[in-house]
From TrEMBL:
<protein>
    <submittedName>
        <fullName>CoA transferase</fullName>
    </submittedName>
</protein>
<keyword id="KW-0808">Transferase</keyword>
Amino acid sequence: MGALSHIRVLDLTRILAGPWCAQNLADFGADVIKIERPGAGDDTRTWGPPYLRDPEGNDTAEAAYYLAANRNKRSVTIDIASPEGQAVIRDLVAHSDVVLENYKVGQLKKYGLDYDSLRAIKPDLIYCSITGFGQTGPYAARAGYDFIIQGMGGFMSITGERDALPGGGPQKAGIAISDLMTGMYATIGVLAALAHRDRTGEGQYIDMALLDVQVAMLANMNTNSLASGRAPGRWGNAHPNIVPYQAFRTADSWIILAVGNDGQFRKFAQAAGAPELADDPRFATNPERVRHRDMLVPQIAALIEKRSKSDWIATLERAGVPCGPINTLDEVFEDPQVVARGLRVDLPHPTAELVKLVGSPVRMSGTPAQAMRHPPLLGEHTESVLREVLGYDDGRIAALRTAGKI
């Protein structure tokens, strides 16, 4: 029994931010019913290649992108643009605790599926809307895409190599970071609202915006700017406040050197065969190393490129100097720590026999997050949900299907 096994979530979201939130809740045992368009479904089902492959090596209809954010859910296809489909949604709301949606501002109101309409059915409903810019403000009507939000929210102004260096310029993250972080913050908001409801019986509305999240998640870079009155620049793989704290090329690959204090720097200098670096007053303390980084970093780079990645990691780990490799994803899933933590999970799948996924990183002793169900096929659970949750009989289900409403 998961921590949220008593909770039912009606998931009207698609793409990534909303599905990521819903998957988090599903991993903790919530019954997540994913509502999709008949015949089409979540857009990401076709965001490939790559696609999940069947035992003969043929592509299935499930893109790998879709698989990443939809395990542990049940898929129900409903045409919410039709009165019949809207009626089904309202019936499901009466049996749900949480509604998640990421439609454009005001779009669900015309269907009678907005918060005010649905809380009349379920007064203690928790309703979470996810949009690019939120429900208020001059940009509320704009469509919000992760890439654009990374730029508008300041992330790309501090990500990428310095302009003066080769390859310099703004750079987005390698993943849709504002989408994913919005999904995480939305999860927190839903859990907080559930705790409040359990204490008071009150539901509430949650307004999540990608831009809000992107700004908030810049953490110390925000406060650096606010405290100094200056906008931070891009540092590539370096750190604005700590030196040396960046990636270095070895003889055969790359490593990350993360020296967090002066004692660690002295250990590094000794391990690197250059103890004089730690005695040099320009480098003896972190503030001085930050001031003289342009003198120090080239010397460290010259030392590190003489030896292999494995040699450096072994040497620095023995010396107690924080370091690590820059792994490709195939190397990640072969890493003994990743294997020991069980991050990869394999689940049975009806068309591919097996689907390889990454499980929740949350470790709980009493109610652990679990990957129990494969990302559903489109409409895989439509009939079972309508029967089990709503008590619809075969005739009613057949009529809805014949009319193309499910």
